[in-house]
Amino acid sequence: MDYVLGLLNGVTDNEALARLLIVGAIGLSTVIAVITLTLLVLGLQSPLQRRLALIKRDHSSAATGREAPGNLQLLLERVGRRITPSAAGKVSATRTLLTHAGYGSASSLQVYWAVRLLLPLTLAGVSLLILPMVPNVSPMTGLGVVVMGAAVGWLLPAMYVDKRRTARQGRLRAAFPDALDLMVVCVESGLALPQAIERVAEEMAVSQAELAEELALVNAQIRAGISSTEALRQLADRTGLEDIQGLVSLLAQSIRFGTSVAATLRIYAEEFRDRRMQAAEEMGAKIGTKLVFPLIFCLWPSFFLVAIGPVIIGIIKTFGKP
């Protein structure tokens, strides 16, 4: 407590104001803790409130086979519902980011913003608890550590979601050529496009579970009455892959003009293989440029040291004698 008082006193230069801030922070923390415990004990533990929360988040264990969310998740949803930005553009961008990362549930947005609020507060509180144990820490250094902890807590969820999105899109992009080849085989053997998508999802359920799940969702949407083009367009929106967007455009034109879907898929598969080959050749062409910096900083100094070092030593010995 003395350390925190000295920290605030060094910032405000007013001991009375520093004590008032400490008392206010303790009171606010107590109120938040009491409200949280009240929600957990009275609200979330109540069967009626729990059932209403499940219905509100469109959750049905019997229909989906998923586990019912725990009290912590429901609490995060409640907190996130209060602090979710009201700007439609920001909400849409965050929703798209979470969908591309694989978080497509209705409550993912609320949980994301709740974590982004609570994690900085948690890290800042942990920093305030640890700093008094570290000797010889100036008030400004302690304040910087607290601010840095809060900043890390704010940025860490966004970095994690962005990294997860990149990894998921990479896995989907790697699995898409195999799915496309299987789809070509199924369509050319006489299956319609929805049946072909269903068969490909079944075949890839073990090796590529994420893409198989997305294709199964496309098939479920088609069975529900959505057109094949619209279902595939939603697949492209969920994954964010340009390859799938190109396939959707070609299939939409094929269905509109009545051309063969099998021929369209085969042509796109060939074009996709050509693009993969061109991408591989482009990456191979960049290797020479990327090797310049390792050669300059790692190999060439050692080479010059071995090649010119003995000569320099001989010159020094020769001209260094009196």
From TrEMBL:
Subcellular location: Cell membrane
Keyword entries, A-Z: Cell membrane, Membrane, Transmembrane, Transmembrane helix
UniProt keyword Membrane, yes or no: yes
TM region positions: 20-42, 113-134, 140-161, 291-316
Membrane-topology descriptor: Multi-pass membrane protein
InterPro entries: T2SS_GspF_dom
Pfam families: T2SSF
Main location (coarse class): membrane
Domain Type II secretion system protein GspF span(s) in chain numbering: 180-307
PANTHER family recorded: INTEGRAL MEMBRANE PROTEIN-RELATED, PILUS ASSEMBLE PROTEIN
Identification of the protein by name: Type II secretion system F family protein
